[in-house]
Amino acid sequence: MPYGKSNYFAYPTQRGHADREQLEWLRADLASTDLPIVVFVHQGLGMQDGLPASDPRAEIEIILRDAGRTDSPGVVACFCGHEHLDRHRRKDGIHYVWINSASYYWVGSAYGRMAPYRDALFAFATFDPAGEIRVEGRRSDWVEPSPEERGYPNAAEISASIGDRRLDYG
């Protein structure tokens, strides 16, 4: 069911779903250039190996991996939001960068719902045609109580920051 028809809450395992029409558009659009391709998406991609074929992200990642023309570098980076995490992984030659939320991390109702940041987060990305992407992030602090002070079990895995990165794609 397309996202616009409420699959987000009704079908949580299909949150990354893209229908046939969207997937064909993506394939065609990515094949239309010989330039390095940077993709911006909401849902998190690229951080897991061995996604089952039933996972909607699997087909999207295959399309990104196989994108471009023989005379093009294809997809060099994919920037993602949604997960509210600061992560980077290079998979199949593509830099997957998860950009943290601008304002909070959702810790769930058992831990106070939202853990807000003191200052808004954002990042600047500079794309150098010589083959480098520079990400300049911003750091903040948690508004107290922090996820750790709340007893959130995954507190060590989250941050109130977007890290600086230098990503080569040459």
Produce the secondary structure layout.
Blueprint: H1 7-10, H2 20-30, E1 37-41, H3 56-65, E2 75-80, E3 87-91, E4 94-98, E5 104-108, E6 113-116, E7 124-128, E8 132-136, H4 147-150, E9 165-168
Parallel strand pairs: 1-2, 2-4
Antiparallel strand pairs: 3-4, 5-6, 7-8, 8-9
Helix pairs in contact: 2-3
In the CATH classification, which architecture of the largest domain applies?
2-Layer Sandwich
Question: Under the CATH scheme, which class of the largest domain?
Answer: Alpha Beta
SSE order: HHEHEEEEEEEHE
Low-confidence stretches: none
Task: Tell me the total number of β-strands.
Answer: 9
How many strands, which pairing sense, and closed or not: the largest β-sheet?
4 strands, mixed
- What count of helical segments does DSSP give? 4
Strand content: 25-35%
Rounded average pLDDT:
90
**How big is the Rg?**
17 Å
Strand order of the largest sheet: 1-2-4-3
Q: How many separate domains make up the residues? A: 2
Shape: globular
CATH superfamily annotation of the largest domain: GpdQ, beta-strand dimerisation domain
Distance N terminus to C terminus? 38 Å
Structural class: alpha/beta
CATH-defined fold name of the largest domain: Transcription Regulator spoIIAA
Characterise the protein shown here.
This protein has four helices and nine strands; from the N terminus they run ααβαβββββββαβ. It is of the alpha/beta class. It has two domains: 1-99, 2-Layer Sandwich (Transcription Regulator spoIIAA); 102-170, no CATH class. It has a four-stranded mixed sheet with strand order 1-2-4-3, with no helix packed on it. Strands 7-8-9 form a three-stranded antiparallel sheet, with no helix packed on it. The mean pLDDT is 90.
